[in-house]
Amino acid sequence: MNDLDQVLRVAVEVASTIAAAAAAAHPRETGGILLGWWLEGRVIVHLAVEVPDPDATQASWVRDYDTAQVALRKILGDLGHPWLGYVGDWHSHPAAGGVSGQDLKSIQDAADQYDQPLALLVHRADCLIEAVVTESANRPLVRGLIPDSPGRGRDADRECRLGHQFSGSPSAASESNPALHRR
């Protein structure tokens, strides 16, 4: 078990949802919120919900607070899960690069409002998903790649490139992944 495994658990469906949303939005960034709970010192990420930014570019996606709150209330109401709540953010980086300094600052600022750690997942151009789990503005706990990144494993580079080729059709991504919440 590595350091990331000790502080973060991400459902396989979350990685698939994020990968499908990234492919559908390509070449623009997209992102959203992570839902889950905290258990025995770990952030448990159960769902990823897309929060579209109509002004997203190849290098920018901004989570609108009001839009995110509406999405959060809707999904919590629909699921009625007693433990489910906000545990972090996710977004894609279609251009080369992983978690940026601005990404770290944003999630660390958000973490200052919580007693528990928050997670940030970034879907990179190589289809790997980089994770940061942070406790406060000045104390990131751990950073690494999630084990179930769609970009890991055999034929991953080919699948990643194919996903980007078909990114012009959001419905294709949504149909292949019913967990993807698009507006």
List descriptors.
alpha/beta, disordered C terminus, 7 strands, 27% strand, 183 residues
Distance between the termini: 37 Å
Topology as a string of helices (H) and strands (E): HEHEEHEHEEEHH
**Which strand order spans the largest sheet, edge to edge or round the barrel?**
1-3-2-4-5-6-7
Q: Approximately what portion of the residues adopt beta-strand conformation?
A: 25-35%
Report the average pLDDT across residues.
Answer: 81
DSSP helical segment count: 6
Q: Would you kindly provide a written description of the structure presented here, covering whatever features stand out?
A:
Helix 2 (12-25) packs across helix 5 and helix 2 (12-25) runs antiparallel to helix 6. 34% of the residues lie in helices and 27% in strands. It contains 6 helices and 7 strands; from the N terminus they run αβαββαβαβββαα. The longest helix is centred in the middle third of the chain and has 15 residues, at 65-79. The chain is globular and about 40 Å long. The model is unreliable at 154-158 and 164-183 (pLDDT under 50). By secondary structure, the protein is an alpha/beta fold. It has a 7-stranded mixed sheet with strand order 1-3-2-4-5-6-7. 36% of the residues are buried.
